[in-house]
Every structure is written in structure tokens, then in C-alpha cells.
Amino acid sequence: MTEHEHYEAIVVGCGPGGAAAAARLADHGVETLVLERGTEAGSKNVSGGLIYAEESAAYTIDDLFDGFREAASERPVTDYRIHNIAGNEVSTFDLTDLHEHDTDWCDAVLRRKMDSWLEQRVHEKTSETGGGVLTNVRVNGLLREDDEIVGVTCDELDPIEADLIVAADGVNSELARDAGLMDWEEPEEWFQGVKAVVDVEPDVIDDRFSIGPDEGVAHLFSGDLFEDVRGGGFLYTNEDSLSIGTVFHLDSLVEQRAEPHQLLDALLTHPLLAQWLGDEYHEREYAAKLVPDSKKVAHPEPYQDRLVLVGDAAGQMQAQGPIIKGMNHAVTAGALAADAFATTRGNADPAAAGRRYAQMLEDSGTMDKLRPRRYDLARTVGERDAVTSVVETVLKSPIGSVAIGNPIAKRVLERAYNSPFMVSMLPDTRTGYVTLPAIIGEQHGKTVYWDNEIEPPSLEERIGDLTYDTDVGNPHIELADESFEASGAAVYACPVSAEDYGGGCYRSEEVKRNGTEETVVSLDTQPCVECGTCAIVADTEWEHPRGGKGVEYREG
């Protein structure tokens, strides 16, 4: 039997879930090694950017890291609104009640700043118990002995064994897939988020949003702004920048042949945003990632042998209408996984900690937030094409428009938008994302007359502004089937590709073979932002680049 280096616990990934797990393990005196793929934590991570501290949560980030809000976050969110858009008609609802429900505080964050700060704190804590944080290390799989998970394998290090392995390696978790706990089969189980970080001076933010230096706002956007693609947009105020982005159901992007960068531009150039963006526009960074839909994929038993999954790796991303919460659930899950190991420490059963962790997720109420039972009931009826068609017909009819146009109906709808109960059972159809908001905007909105004269960067310019350390000769994605039928969706769904742009990851071309002409797809991994979209919508063999290679986010 080969002798390998051994730690009590290995945590893969130093985002909020991995940091929480490592910090709590160190609190329990557990020897913990953290392996991070980026040059530093945060260099591979992207988030729209709100982290919550829920009153009902077993753990919050400031429970585990003193001084977090002062050192690692941007602005506290003190104003939360959603804009229902129909062309230039906009009706705005105040979502304060929904936002403040079960909320102790909520801050905007940028992942490079936040995660790198967490990494330093984690390294300090884990070093005290004989471990630490190693960066530029890609964990590429699970180490098994007699078909039992006993550790991890890495590109840069020899295999390492552990009594506990915490997979906090994100939405594209190779450990979760290696264990057979998660897959990349169904586009309807995922969202794709695309974001621009826009440079704005702090005093300008204060003035344009009518807030103080210690205040921030969150704005959401829905309606016909994005045509028929199911999803919406967001704007969050940071200390000296804005995070502006879109989040859409991946299957809807594919069905509508929509290009993510163009949908982002539709938001950026809408007249409503002129009041906040002004005449000068400078993007610091363009970024993208996949987001798991916890209602469909949050794993009820996220463990196997010594392996436990936390955060996006376990599908723990809550996206229910205007409610978008992920990092806070990753923190809770990471800390609970550590507590579960401490409780079962020394148990000869390798899955003892995993079983305890799954039970703690259930007992803490976390699973009910991630997979609300009432959504499953609503989904069985509401997500049928026939039902959606009938609802759409009624809403678009003169009777439906008149009913929604009633002032009483507006008050009822605003209350419904602020109801956690109602939001948690909202079916994933175009009705809630497009049709109803557009009718609300049309019936109750005011015309926006501002001239928005900004010109967003081209896709080529956005890619050119990103930082890459290309792993020459080692492509991390291989196209298994070049036919347009199998892989063509990546040409428009990839956030750094487009049908009329030949410099992205994916492109299509007409070729003549054996006297016939066919459309084929080609791949260049150099501009890849490692979002994982093509792993789902194309026939590829996908893995992360080696440690420190590939894209490096400065903002996240």
C-alpha cells in the first residue's frame, strides 16, 4: 500500500463555504489543509455580489470572522427595489419587506477582495492546528482505496489522504462529479450570470443614488427588456463601483439563441440606467459564471464516504424570484460540515460525518430554504406548457390587462412580491419573469425619458481587458463532437462567444466534406472565463485549468 501525506481534513476551495469549513475545523482543533486553485482566493470566483446574514441561520460569516464587514465587504444594502419594465414604461416596487425578512444584515461584496481577506484569516487559523492554505493547486479528483474515498489527487502535488474532504470547489466541482453526486446533464437546472463591474467614484454613487457613504442599494429588473429570455437583471452599489449584471435560466438562453453579452448591454443601455451611469462609462471587468438552481439540484445527501459537498458544489444556491442567496448558505453549510466532523471524530464509519452533516442541514432549516416543498407542488402544475399558455392568454387579454391595471391590483401585486411564501412557490415560466412584469410596467409605469448615451465595450474589448495566464499546450476543454447539432448552442450561449464574432471560445463555420457543405463548431480555450456553460450545452470534455492558469479575476 502506497504511503501518502495525511491530514485530518482537506478543504478544496477557499471561497466563503470553504473558508467557513476551514475556520470552524480549526476552532475544533482539527489539522486542516486548504487547497485553492487560484493564485489567491477570489481570483477564480464571481458573484453578483450580495452576502446575507440571516437571523435564522446556524452560522453567518461575521460569526466566524471578526471584522468581516469592516474589512471585506463593500456597502450595506439599505434600499431594495424591483423595476417592472415594458419598453420605456417602468413601474417600481419597493422590496424592503422581502429583503429584510429573516435578515440581520446584507452587504454588497466583490469576490477578489472578500475571498483574499478570508484566505489570510483562514491561513492564520489553520496554521495553528498544523495545516494552512496552499494556492495554485488544482485538485483534479478523488483518491480511492478499495473503492472507498480516502483523499484527493492534484495536478501539482502527490495524492493526499484525509479523514474528511470538504468539496467547496464551486459550481463546476470536479470532486462532486467524480463522486457521482452532481452532473451536467440538464440546462434547466442551471442559471448563467454575467456581470460588469463599472467604475464610479464614491461621492458620485452617493449623489446619484441619494444615499450616504455607509448606505447601498440593490435594484432588480424584469419585464420585456430581455425579450422572452427567462431571468432578469441586477445593479448593486459597491464602495467605488457598481456591479451590473444579468441572470438567466440556461435552457431559456439556448431556446431563444440569446447572446449573454448582448442581454447585458440591453440592461446597460436602457434609459432607466442613464440616471445612475451618467455620460462616462468605464468597465473594470466583465465576468460570468454558472449558478445552480437549488430548487432542482440542492443535494439532500451531499456526501459520500469521507467527502462532503458545500456551497455551489452541493447546488446550495437559492434563486426564487427576487430572492438570490448563495454565499450565506455556503457559509452555513461549511460550518455545519465542520461541526459534523467534530461530533463524529474518531468514528470508524467513513460516512459518519456526512450523514451527520446532512441531518444538520435539514434540522437547521437550510434545506427547506433551498428546496421549498411548496415549489415542488406548484411546479407540477405551473410548469406545464398547456397551463403556461392558458395563463399567458388570460394575462394578455383585455380583461387581464384591465384587472392588473386596477390600483388595488397593484397594491396586491406589490404585497405578493414581498411575500417569502409566494415567492418561494413561483413556477419557473416566462409568466413571472417577462409577461406579468411587462403588463405591470405597461399598466402602472411611468415613461422614462432619459437619454442613455453610453456605449458598452465590445465583446472583443471585454475579453482583451481580462487577465489570463494561458496554459500553453494544455487545453482544459476538448470538443468531443464538432457538429453544430451537438455543440452549436455554445456559439451563442458562451458568454465570451457570439455568432458574428470569431475571436471567442466557440465559433461556427461552413466546411465542404465529401462534396457536401456542413456547419461545424471549433474551439479556442484561450478566452475562456471557466464558467462551465459549454459543459452543459455542448458535447465537451471539460475540466478546470491547472493551478493558477487560465483567467484571473481582479474584481469577481
Structure description:
The chain is of the alpha+beta class and 556 residues long. The chain contains 24 helices and 26 strands. The strands form 7 sheets. Strands 1, 2, 7, 8, 9, 10, 16 and 17 form an 8-stranded mixed β-sheet that branches. The chain has an 8-stranded mixed β-sheet with strand order 15-11-14-13-12-4-5-20. A two-stranded antiparallel ribbon has the order 3-6. A hairpin with a 2-residue loop joins strand 4 (77-86) and strand 5. Helix 1 runs parallel beside helix 5 (111-127), helix 12 (327-344) crosses helix 13 and helix 17 (398-405) crosses helix 20 (430-444). The longest helix is centred in the middle third of the chain and has 18 residues, at 327-344. It is globular.
Question: What's the number of extended β-strand segments?
Answer: 26
- Helix content, binned percent: 25-40%
> How many separate helices?
24
Q: Main sheet, how many strands, which sense, barrel? A: 8 strands, mixed
**Terminal residue distance:** 43 Å
The shape, in one word, is globular
What portion of the residues fall into strands of 2 or more residues?
25-35%
Low-confidence stretches: none
Which structural class is indicated by helix and strand composition?
A: alpha+beta
The average pLDDT value, as a whole number, equals: 95
- Please state the CA-atom Rg, rounded to the nearest Å: 23 Å
